[in-house]
Amino acid sequence: MFFHPVEDRYLTPREYMRIQGFPDNYILTGPIRGRSGKVRFLDQHRQVANSVPPPMAKILAHEIKTILCQDYLKFSVTP
């Protein structure tokens, strides 16, 4: 858990999301909700902590696609 550099508080889930590269309009949702029906603050921290940052996911997906395409071309049989 990280603390705010200037204020005496923890970082908010939104601040963690910005650090990880999530867009500002990204909405946290999930099955664990409080009585109000909203995602609780702690649940939001947990969701962000367990997530894969979008920029990293994009890079990984691109690399996997590249490898799969290379393997397909390498092992495909041409008539």
Envelope shape = elongated
Any idea what the radius of gyration is? 19 Å
Order of helices and strands: HHH
Mean pLDDT: 80
Could you tell me the number of beta strands? 0
What class do helices, strands and sheet pairing give?
mainly alpha
| Main β sheet profile | none
The number of helical segments is 3
Ranges with pLDDT <50 over ≥5 residues?
Answer: none
| Quaternary class | single chain
Could you tell me the strand content as a percent range? under 5%
**How many domains, as an integer?**
1
Measured distance between first and last alpha carbons: 58 Å
Helix content: 40-55%
What's the gist of this structure?
Helix content is 49%, strand content 0%. It contains three helices and no strands.
What does this protein structure show overall?
This protein is mostly helical and 79 residues long. The protein has 3 helices and no strands. It is elongated and about 65 Å long. The chain starts with 12 loop residues before the first helix and ends with a helix.
Question: Which helices and strands appear, and what pairs or packs with what?
Answer:
Elements: H1 13-20, H2 41-49, H3 54-75
Q: Which terms summarize this structure?
A:
elongated, single chain, 49% helix, 3 helices, mainly alpha, 79 residues
